[in-house]
Description:
two-stranded antiparallel ribbon; transmembrane; transmembrane helix; Alpha 1,4-glycosyltransferase domain-containing protein; transferase; Nucleotide-diphossugar_trans; eight-stranded mixed β-sheet
Amino acid sequence: MTIIKDGRLFQFILLLIGSGVLYEIIYQKSYAPYLSFILTKVQGQESLNESLFVTQGKHAFTSKKTTEHKKVNKKTLEDILNHDNGIIFLETTDTMQPQPLVLCAIESAARVYQDRPVVFFMKGFRDVDLEDNEKHTRYFPTLSSRENIYIFPLVMDEILKGTPLHSWYNKSNPEKERYWIHTLADSCRLALIWKYGGLYMDTDIITFRPVPCKNFLAGQHSKYSSNGIFGFSSNHNFTWACMESFVQNYNGGVWGFQGPTLFTRILKQLCDLPDFEDIKDISCGNISFLHPQRFYPIGYGGWTQFYEVWDIFPTFNDSYAVHLWNYMNQKERRTMVPGSNTLVDHLYKNHCPSTYEAIQRNESLYL
Length: 367
């Protein structure tokens, strides 16, 4: 009888323990991973993932709840670019495999501006259905390790909405435009910087060090401004004036008319620009007009120097970044060759080492 009683007592204890575990599973959810494991064995992993539980950390959500949970925590463009401190890059073609120089430019900026978001807008992402925009970086392994890089679809209608450029865009006919891809880029950079503030850079600019001023234009040479890199606070009068003039004086048949020529025209309306002297920047109200050495130490006429072997590499001590004039390279299509001892080899190695090493190991830059 004692043995029977002891057996019943043992069964009763097991029942209590089992009830406690079941309580935790159903009400407290602290044993959700175990429930997931059991259900997986019974119903199969595919069925479980589709219709029952998705385990995340210590909590389990139904697939519907998980989607809702992710949407709540997903970072929007406004969340990322709401402090006037974003670094913006654009790709206005449909390519999903940007050139290595593009990846190098983005990586170098992310390394220098580690406390600022670096956002790459890609037109080719418009049809990609991904829940988290920032996860787009997984397509580019050399960028995915940088936590401050975000990739978003380039949706023209959304970007230009609320600016003078919106009506121009809706009335435009791309088939009749000679430089449409470049004109799109000219319009987008203005709208984005006006809306969100921050710094815009072309995708053939390799960054060395931070630009110390907030509102600035880059001198390409005396009395002539580039639009390949510039920075402004949001809702700045200069960017708004540029957008108005962009539409009112539109001439898409002339190269650069909506870009550097536009910037130069508006800047000259604000100030009587003197010639640059030594390596000194010029002030125009609250805008700094930066000396060509800051970004263009090698002019467009000397662009091939980047792909030549140097006995002694330039220090670029007076430069914040360097523009590689990739537009000039469209016909020759010169590339960086690891170990070639060219200037571009030196720049990749020092300022975008992840991209450099991937090319050196002959790894794919895209997934």
